[in-house]
Write a structure and sequence with these properties.
It is a single chain. With 267 residues, the chain is mostly helical. The longest helix has 15 residues. It is elongated, with a radius of gyration of 23 Å. The termini are far apart.
Length: 267
């Protein structure tokens, strides 16, 4: 491969960002030892953060180049990718391909690298949760950062907006993940905000909202007996005025009898 590589190497940036050229480069790198790929391609690429950003965000084929390096190399070899995720986390998270790239890089990152990226993402939780692409990054973080981090994220950036997030197409997915991965005390606080001190009008609006309704179902399925009872008492005055309210009431009764209720099943 030496002759071909020596001819292509001066042009590897333009080749990696081209749909056909990237395929040729990946095929060629498959024939090379990993240490040579790291030394001859990744090392010079690390000095070009704008090129890495373009690879992460521009297209499906360029994103697959990032996936190639992630699959092929050790976390220490793609430190420049981690640095990009730290310095431009919002730009990546709000891009169609960037939100996937940042997750694939984090799949291979070590704990220290993940923490560095998560710390940068957390302050933007509210904005990213309602974003069509950014919400996937927040969901990923909730699943992989640990319950303490999830509690911090919810307590600092979501409490006070849980109901609004629950009725949002994108943020409702984040709320559901938080209900599942938060510690029991934080889960209880989320449910308190969803149901307690709410007017009949507010509860009816949430039940009739297609996304809010999913959160109601998720909360019933995941609630402790104490919280399931609280939900039942709060919803009792409005269920008879809500379409399919009898089905939600039946779910609550099954939950109170200790039976599991499926998540994300339309009533």
């Amino acid at each position: 491969y030496d002759l071909i590589f020596n001819e292509l190497c001066p042009h590897f940036v333009s080749l990696l960002t081209d749909s056909n050229g990237a395929y040729v480069m990946k095929t060629m790198m498959d024939t090379m030892p990993t240490e040579v790929v790291c030394a001859q391609v990744l090392t010079p690429l690390a000095e070009m953060p704008d090129v890495i950003f373009e690879l992460c965000t521009s297209s499906l084929h360029s994103r697959r180049v990032i996936q190639y390096f992630v699959d092929r190399c050790a976390p220490t070899d793609f430190h420049a990718f981690i640095q990009l995720c730290v310095s431009r986390c919002v730009d990546l998270a709000t891009s169609q391909h960037g939100c996937i790239s940042i997750q694939r890089v984090l799949d291979k990152a070590n704990d220290e690298q993940k923490t560095a990226v998560f710390n940068q993402v957390v302050p933007f939780t509210g904005m990213l949760s309602v974003h069509p692409y950014g919400n996937y990054v927040i969901q990923y973080m909730v699943e992989h950062a640990g319950r303490d981090c999830t509690d911090q994220l919810v307590g600092t950036h979501m409490l006070g907006q849980v109901t609004a997030f629950s009725c949002n197409k994108f943020a409702s997915n984040v709320v559901e993940k938080c209900l599942y991965f938060a510690t029991p005390p934080m889960q209880h606080l989320i449910m308190e905000e969803l149901y307690q001190n709410k007017s009949t009008t507010e509860l009816e609006a949430m039940l009739q909202d297609s996304f809010g309704n999913y959160i109601v179902q998720a909360s019933i399925a995941l609630a402790s007996f104490q919280d399931a009872w609280m939900i039942s008492e709060c919803l009792k005055p409005v269920l008879q005025h809500t379409p399919y309210g009898h089905k939600i009431e039946a779910r609550l009764q099954r939950r109170l009898r200790g039976k599991k209720v499926a998540l994300r099943t339309s009533v």
